[in-house]
Design goal:
The complex is a heterodimer of chains A (314) and B (332). Chain A is mostly helical. In chain A, 77% of the residues lie in helices and 0% in strands. Chain A is built from 13 helices and no strands. The longest helix of chain A has 38 residues, at 218-255. Chain B has an 8-stranded mixed beta sheet, with helices on both faces. In chain B, strands 2-1-4-5 form a 4-stranded antiparallel beta sheet, with helices on one face. Chain B is an alpha/beta fold and 332 residues long. Chain B is built from 13 helices and 12 strands. Classes of the chains: A mainly alpha (314), B alpha/beta (332). Chain A binds chain B through residues 204-207, 209-218, 220, 224-225, 228-229, 232, 302-305, 308, 314, and chain B through 58, 60, 62, 84-85, 88-93, 96-97, 99, 101, 104-110, 118-119, 122-123, 154, 156-157, 167, 170-171.
């Protein structure tokens, strides 16, 4: 089938992308100033021989490509190495943190797309009215506000004055509410603007006029004929957006002191904890490739023209 | 003689488009009667308001259009005043419409069979299985080869002619009383044009429907029409039977349009044309709108607008000097 060939092709393209990213990243980490061994010793006075011994023990005396292949040979066996700082396996560190980040991503993405799509469709249908103006302006303001500032304001409002939600650390699922909101707001404003623009464009299409001419009711024209077409670019955005949220999570998790992967990444970069940074970036890369591929597949399902244009036959 | 039944009665219709430069009066006081069972052609240059008039009938005008006055009576019901839900019942079932550009008129994300089947599902409360079978039959009827297979394809795999055939299938499944075809062949190859016209003509006879055909092509008029209405700058200038229009046009504009076609037959003579360009509908000329381009212009034409009057039996014209026009051709 055309769709299956298309999916396989997309997946095969993803593999070299993952390799490429890990190679580039490995080299960048290697080029960074500073010596992880010195950080490891943390000012402890030892002999140069001891430093050499540690360097050998961590494999840091080898050329960079040897280090890379060594790392890679372990990765394919599911071993992401050991943190140079805490001496714990990277897989353990990440698996402890990943659930928080995934939960945060999931909640904030669903929130931002629910708000964005609904308000986008509403403003498109009520185009030029007061509702449209108010929601659109709110959207522009929302998009202009940085997530961390909005996060601080939420902390102030709900944590300091109302004192109904925790502002720091993880005390249970309700600890994710404020961080999720801080991530979702700017994103939802963007989703709203995209949805509104797409919906307005689609409503002007000839096939919408055809749908009316057929005698379909408003609900059917909007849902079956207009929304189905308008949602295609929004769905693409959705899948491209998810990996980016991890980037946003670095700031928000740090701000709210959540024990997530974003915060782990931030701390590990500061400590030059190579193995942890490598592991997290590998996971982000894999997620990016997976979600991009998923996005391509969903679009191919939604829009039959894509399968032909981008190869794969009918 | 049997008095023909009036199916569609447009009375004093005025429509304008709101633009940044003002109100463009696309249709300015049009009255028109279409009889049941006939093929009525509305002819005119691009921008004369014929498509606006056509779109106004099932109320499919773009949002910046304003209906200023008038009524459109369909089987005695005023379509401009009927409720949205009642109108939805009429659209596709009683009044169907085919558009100019088949390339963009079908929804790209739905299968062709589904798009046709939606109509009987909506109007006859048919089950999807039944409706899809009906759609396949109808697609076969309009000349789609392998309708069973092709009904499962998406529109982008269809050629322009096949898309227009699919539109026709979609709009005729419910056997409507009135089929409005707004320049249905303009976007198609000449060879396909003839096939589509033939198909429309066949379906009209088979289903006994009334065809309102909008065109700028007098060749099409000669081939399929019973009666012709000529539009110029938002107004109807002449209405008559097709033979009468070709043999004895009474309006200088109609005459000019026919001469453009007829002159081609005399191989050596140059193609005739009407001098000048159609007027802006933002600021139409005073008096008769055709007077700046007319060879028969008099002082009266500049000052006073001619009314559409029945000067012969079933022959209406809006011209002060129609008696001078009758019979004499420009090219001779």
């Amino acid at each position: 089938m055309g769709l299956l060939t298309y999916v396989v092709k997309k997946l095969l393209i993803g593999i070299p992308v993952i390799f490429g990213v890990t190679i580039i990243l490995f080299y960048i980490m290697y080029m960074l100033p500073g010596d992880p061994i010195k950080l490891l010793l943390a000012g402890e006075r030892v002999t140069p021989a001891k430093i050499e011994e540690l360097r050998r023990a961590w494999g840091l005396d080898q050329p960079v490509y040897i280090q890379y292949f060594y790392w890679l040979s372990h990765v394919v066996r599911g071993d992401l190495g050991v943190s140079i700082v805490t001496k714990e396996p990277v897989t353990l560190l990440i698996s402890q943190r990943l659930p928080y980040t995934l939960a945060l991503m999931l909640i904030s993405t669903l929130l931002s797309y629910a708000i964005g799509v609904l308000s986008g469709v509403l403003t498109a249908l009520r185009r030029g009215t007061l509702v449209d103006s108010v929601v659109s302006i709110t959207g522009i303001v929302g998009y202009s506000i940085p997530g961390f500032w909005f996060g601080l304001m939420l902390m102030l409002a709900f944590g300091r004055y109302l004192q109904i939600l925790p502002i720091s650390g993880y005390e249970g699922p309700h600890s994710l509410i404020l961080p999720a909101l801080s991530l979702a707001l700017p994103s939802s404003a963007y989703v709203m603007r995209l949805t509104r623009a797409e919906m307005i464009e689609v409503l002007n299409e000839d096939y919408i006029r055809t749908a009316w001419a057929k005698g379909l009711n408003e609900r059917r024209v909007l849902l079956v004929h207009a929304l189905r077409n308008a949602m295609i670019p929004v769905v693409v955005m959705f899948f491209l957006d998810i990996p980016w949220l991890i980037g946003g999570a670095v700031v928000i998790e740090t701000l709210f002191a959540l024990p997530g992967m974003g915060r782990l990444l931030y701390v590990s970069i500061i400590r030059q904890d190579y193995a942890v940074v490598q592991g997290i970036v590998l996971i982000i890369t894999v997620l990016t490739v997976v979600f991009n591929t998923l996005g391509d597949i969903v679009v191919a399902v939604l829009d039959p023209r894509v399968r032909v244009e981008r190869g794969g036959g009918v | 003689m049997r008095v023909p039944e009036v199916l569609l009665d447009v009375r004093d219709l005025r429509i304008c488009y709101e633009t940044s430069r003002g109100c463009v009066k696309a249709v300015d006081g049009v009255s028109l009667e279409v009889y049941a069972g006939e093929t009525f052609c509305l002819v005119g240059e691009t921008g004369c308001g014929k498509s606006t008039l056509a779109l106004a009938i099932p109320r499919l005008l773009p949002p910046n259009a304003r209906i200023l006055s008038g009524s459109i009576l369909f089987k005695g019901v005023d379509l401009l005043r009927v409720s949205d839900s009642k109108l939805q019942e009429l659209r596709g079932k009683e009044i169907a419409m085919i558009f100019q550009n088949p390339m963009t008129s079908l929804n790209p994300v739905h299968r062709v069979g589904f798009q046709v089947a939606e109509v009987p599902v909506t109007h006859f409360k048919m089950s999807w299985r039944e409706a899809l079978a009906t759609a396949v039959r109808q697609l076969g009827r309009v000349g789609i080869a392998d309708p069973d297979l092709r009904s499962r394809d998406y529109p982008h795999t269809f050629s322009g002619g096949m898309k227009q055939r699919s539109m026709i299938a979609m709009m005729t499944t419910c056997k409507p009383s009135l089929l409005i075809a707004d320049e249905p062949t303009t976007a198609l190859d000449v060879t396909i044009q003839a096939q589509i016209l033939k198909l429309l003509h066949e379906l009209k006879n088979e289903y006994g429907l009334t065809l309102l055909l909008i065109t700028h092509n007098f060749g099409i008029v000669a081939e399929v029409c019973d009666r012709v209405g000529v539009m110029y700058a938002g107004k109807i200038v002449e209405v008559a039977d097709v033979t009468e229009v070709f043999e004895a046009p009474l309006h200088p504009y109609t005459k000019g349009l026919i001469d453009c076609v007829v002159a081609r037959r005399k191989s050596k003579s140059r193609l005739n044309q009407i001098p000048g360009t159609p007027p802006s509908l933002l600021n139409p000329p005073t008096g008769c709108r055709f007077h700046p381009r007319c060879a028969y212009v008099t002082h009266e034409c500049v000052k006073e607008e001619p009314r559409l009057i029945e000067v012969r039996k079933n022959h209406l014209v809006a011209c002060h000097n129609y008696e001078k026009v009758g019979g004499v051709s420009w090219s001779s």
